[in-house]
């Protein structure tokens, strides 16, 4: 069933990114997957198609639902196409601060002002990344575990300025994806949990 709300964008088509995009498709989201060039996007689409086909083969999803899922997926190398009109944006770009800051600057210009921006948490602190936004309260963390398909837990991370509405939106997305959530309060990144 297709969700009746704005699209979900995933930024980064690597292992985590395409896994998150697949989970979003399974949850009924119209999903836009972004990466900087066509090659990783083609590989990601192929990986998602393979996961969906395996689901059909195992009887976990019907062929009709599989076709509908793939129809909800758009891949693009243009940030504005990925985040324009999106309600939730999940960033899973490579772990380079310069790359992430440049991407966030583009996202802030192109995404709706109320869009939630979730980082797939990493060694980089969410609070530091959110500080570059005009509205840092709309950013928090969604720490998916690899492989996303099999791992049921998502850590929802409240950074220093993350609002309650942002936490609620991230939690709702994770639950819609069939994930169990645990809230990490007052931490800046997954490395602060240790």
Task: Summarize the structure in words.
- The chain has 194 residues and is an alpha/beta fold.
- It is 40% helix and 19% strand.
- The chain contains seven helices and eight strands, in the order E-H-E-H-H-E-H-E-H-E-H-E-E-H-E.
- The protein has an eight-stranded mixed beta sheet with strand order 3-2-1-4-5-6-7-8.
- The radius of gyration is 15 Å and the shape is globular.
Distance between the termini: 39 Å
Number of helices: 7
Tell me roughly what share of residues is in helical segments: 40-55%
Low-confidence stretches: 188-194
| Cα-based radius of gyration, to the nearest Å | 15 Å
Going by CATH, the architecture would be: 3-Layer(aba) Sandwich
- CATH class identity: Alpha Beta
User: How much of the residues is beta strand, in percent?
Assistant: 15-25%
Mean pLDDT, rounded to whole units?
91
Number of strands: 8
Q: If strands are numbered along the chain, what order do they take across the biggest sheet?
A: 3-2-1-4-5-6-7-8
Order of helices and strands: EHEHHEHEHEHEEHE
Morphology = globular
- Provide the CATH topology: Rossmann fold
Please identify the structural class as seen in this structure. Answer: alpha/beta
Relevant CATH superfamily: NAD(P)-binding Rossmann-like Domain
State the domain count.
1
Largest sheet: 8 strands, mixed
What topology does this entry show?
Elements: E1 8-11, H1 15-26, E2 31-34, H2 38-57, H3 63-71, E3 73-76, H4 79-83, E4 88-91, H5 97-110, E5 116-119, H6 126-130, E6 139-144, E7 153-157, H7 164-176, E8 180-184
Parallel strand pairs: 1-2, 1-4, 2-3, 4-5, 5-6, 7-8
Antiparallel strand pairs: 6-7
Helix pairs in contact: 1-2, 2-3
